[in-house]
């Protein structure tokens, strides 16, 4: 169950990052509220996951899911650029996440 909490917390990190962008500096009410709620839920689930998963592993996985998710959302929904260097950087993040998970088994 802790790993499920951690993955959902990471997904919620992507939600709050995207909604923060949509809030235009917290000037739009609905995206601002989504940001606050998703942040609180993400941190709560991260805390639950850290009851069983070591801090370094949990935090690394959580931020990695958030980074990769934000990268994909930026490309798909916000028209951010895709180039070889950005894709390589994303692949390095994913490989680090996989290695962290394997090392924590």
UniProtKB/TrEMBL annotation:
The keyword Lyase does not apply. The chain crosses the membrane at residues 27-47, 59-78, 84-103. GO terms for molecular function: transmembrane transporter activity. It comes from Afifella marina DSM 2698. GO terms for biological process: xenobiotic detoxification by transmembrane export across the plasma membrane. PANTHER family: GUANIDINIUM EXPORTER, SMR FAMILY PROTON-DEPENDENT DRUG EFFLUX TRANSPORTER SUGE. The keyword Transport applies. This is Guanidinium exporter. It holds the Pfam family Multi_Drug_Res. GO terms for cellular component: plasma membrane. It is a multi-pass membrane protein. The lineage of its organism: Bacteria, Pseudomonadati, Pseudomonadota, Alphaproteobacteria, Hyphomicrobiales.
């Amino acid at each position: 169950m802790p790993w499920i909490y951690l993955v959902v917390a990471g997904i919620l990190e992507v939600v709050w990052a995207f909604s923060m962008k949509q809030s235009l500096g917290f000037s739009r009410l609905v995206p601002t509220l989504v940001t606050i709620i998703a942040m609180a839920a993400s941190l709560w689930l991260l805390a639950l996951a850290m009851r069983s998963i070591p801090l370094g592993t949990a935090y690394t996985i959580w931020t990695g899911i958030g980074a990769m998710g934000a990268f994909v959302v930026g490309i798909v929904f916000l028209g951010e650029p895709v180039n070889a260097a950005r894709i390589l950087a994303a692949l390095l993040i994913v490989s680090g996440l996989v290695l962290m998970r394997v090392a924590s088994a």
